[in-house]
Design brief:
Distance between the termini: 30 Å
Low-confidence stretches: none
Order of helices and strands: EEHEH
Number of strands: 3
CATH topology: Herpes Virus-1
CATH architecture: 2-Layer Sandwich
Length: 84
């Protein structure tokens, strides 16, 4: 089951469980759409691509709560883009 992390790892923007702006990689690194675009759709942690994060249905939130764990690791964009 996906964690559904609450924020973008780079800019710390809030990403609610039903956010249409949340993007994830295969390891569930979570970024907002704007940061994923700046990263050229390449995860700085694993090198994988980003996909739109699925929405957890509201009626399942109590049974399957979303994560409250915040991962905040701002990206060095120059270094990341140089390594692509």
């Amino acid at each position: 089951m996906l964690e559904i992390r609450p924020t973008c790892e780079n800019c710390n923007k809030s990403l609610a469980y039903d956010s249409k702006e949340a993007m994830i990689c295969t390891f569930e690194c979570t970024f907002c759409k704007a940061c994923a675009n700046q990263l050229k759709n390449c995860c700085p942690n694993c090198g994988g691509n980003f996909e739109k994060r699925p929405v957890r249905p509201k009626n399942l939130l109590k049974e399957c709560p979303v994560s409250t764990r915040i991962v905040f690791k701002p990206v060095d964009f120059k270094k990341h883009l140089r390594n692509l």
